[in-house]
Amino acid sequence: MSTNLLATTDQTFAADVDQRPGLVLVDFWAEWCGPCKSLLPVLGEVAELYAGEVAVTKINADDNKATSDRFNVRGLPTLILFKDGVEQERLLGMTSKTRIAALLDRHLEA
């Protein structure tokens, strides 16, 4: 796993996402989720590619129900992009590095 791919929890979400300036991409995942496991290397590549521009973090939806419920996460994987702590966009299900990069590029240029 990439050293730029962080982990967050219900307890650290405020500091890791809500109060963090700039863009943060949050991956809601679970151990039992096959597509979530397939997405892991893609997120590692994205974290490396956008290091210094976008923080990329993962949160286990099963272990952190308060945050999952707060953002009404109903399917996994769910990627939510935050800017200055405010939700901007979501990507649901398995997705490509190209699609994630396009999302991030769009918000970096804005």
From TrEMBL:
InterPro entries referenced in this protein's UniProt entry, alphabetically = Thioredoxin, Thioredoxin-like_sf, Thioredoxin_CS, Thioredoxin_domain
> What Pfam families is this protein classified in?
Thioredoxin
Name the keywords, alphabetized: Disulfide bond, Electron transport, Redox-active center, Transit peptide, Transport
Thioredoxin domain ranges (all copies) = 1-109
Reply yes or no: does the keyword Acyltransferase apply: no
Task: Write down the Gene3D superfamilies for this protein, in alphabetical order.
Answer: Glutaredoxin (3.40.30.10)
Recorded family membership: Belongs to the thioredoxin family. Plant M-type subfamily.
Q: Report what the protein is called.
A: Thioredoxin
